[in-house]
Design brief:
Length: about 110
């Protein structure tokens, strides 16, 4: 499972392709990585909500297909959903950083 957890963003964040993954680990792993990778047009897109908010103000909500309240609910509920239980990830540094970003954008959240 460590390979799965570490490998999901390898195509997005490193200089590897799905073909490289397939050659090294087989079709099943390549399919998992490909299915969780973002489309190519989004990989290099400027997708940071905080940066967009600093630039656009409340106009940032116009780029979403949901209201500000719905987006806020989604992001605020994620730390609670992923941080609890036996499989919780609340000690993972990336999770803590995510909580800080959500807190900065929408107010304090429990991480």
């Amino acid at each position: 499972m460590v390979l799965f957890a570490v490998g999901l963003d390898v195509v997005e964040d490193e200089d590897y392709t799905v073909s490289d993954i397939r050659d090294a680990f087989g079709e099943a792993v390549a399919t998992l990585v490909d299915g969780t990778s973002e489309p190519g047009e989004l990989i290099n897109a400027d997708r940071d909500i905080i940066r967009d908010y600093d630039r656009l103000g409340n106009g940032v909500w116009d780029i979403f297909n949901a209201s500000m309240d719905s987006v806020a609910w989604y992001y605020i509920s994620m730390p609670d959903a992923f941080g609890n239980g036996d499989e919780g990830i609340s000690d993972v540094p990336a999770f803590k950083e995510f909580g800080k970003c959500v807190g900065k954008m929408f107010g304090e959240v429990k991480v």
